[in-house]
Amino acid sequence: MKIDLTDTTAGEINKALVKGRRAIGTPAVGMVLTLVIVTDEENAYDALKAANDASREHPSRTLVVIKRVSRTPRDRTSSRMDAEVRVGVEAGTGETVVLRLYGEVSDHADSVVLPLLLPDAPVVVWWPVNAPLDPAEDPLGALAQRRVTDTYAAEQPVRELSARAAAYTPGDTDLSWTRITPWRSMLAAALDQVDCAVRAVEVEGEEFNPSCELLAMWLADRLDVPVRRSLSAGPGLTAVRMETSRGPIVLDRADGSLATLTIEGQPARAVALKRRDTAELIAEELRRLDPDDTYASALRYGVERLNPQAAEPEPEREAAKAPAKKAAAKRAPAKKAAAK
Asked: What are the Glucose-6-phosphate dehydrogenase assembly protein OpcA C-terminal domain coordinates in residue numbering (predicted)?
């Protein structure tokens, strides 16, 4: 069931939620948390679909906050809120409210969201794109116990990791970290099988992929050994190679779905290590509402310590290479003349 409200208020939205529950015959509220999604119109559909899929595991009230861009002076002066209230099949196993904010009200989204939160239930705020540099200081982020960002969606993902480390507050997490949970589990299990000392590690994956950097930072932080970051064509993470006192341990995934685990003295094993969709990632993050100390420790290790050039964006690298390219261009005519 879907109820459309134009130029509405939080009170009218709450009334529509009660009306919708009664209409479908489920007046009782059995939701465990409030999930607030802050996004734009372009990414709202995908984010809401992922949240609805995750609600099968975590029944929740989902509030989608879309701040509409004012295109004319008249739009900037007019302030209103439109809403879609969805209950029943269209809202997964919970309730969904899509809020479109226009004008000045978009600067006070926290005041709009606050009356719609479930009483005495945890709040999780998720920014699929355009996350603030300091989520805990954001007015909406201040309402939440957990704040979920996605560094992979940033223009400069690796540099964004440095900003996340500087602004980290207990309760912050990132889907780039969630993506490497199977890798961390597999590597930890591999090391449990062999009594050895790890001497060095190589992490191979796409350039400017924050999950690759986070995995390398986690290994460097946990094992206290040198970790080298190498590049591949992807997709995503492709391999981790550990040099140990008992021989190499290699976890290699070339196709993005099936990996091969090789341990010295044991037969190679094929392990499922597929790339997971957003619904699985957000469902994993909703399972825990306590601070992730392991993520915090890995993040604070620092991408700069891992690779001093990793946080440098591509345009700046090209600018740094420009003088060398010019000098090579000047030498080229002299070489041609000598050849003649």
From this structure: 170-299
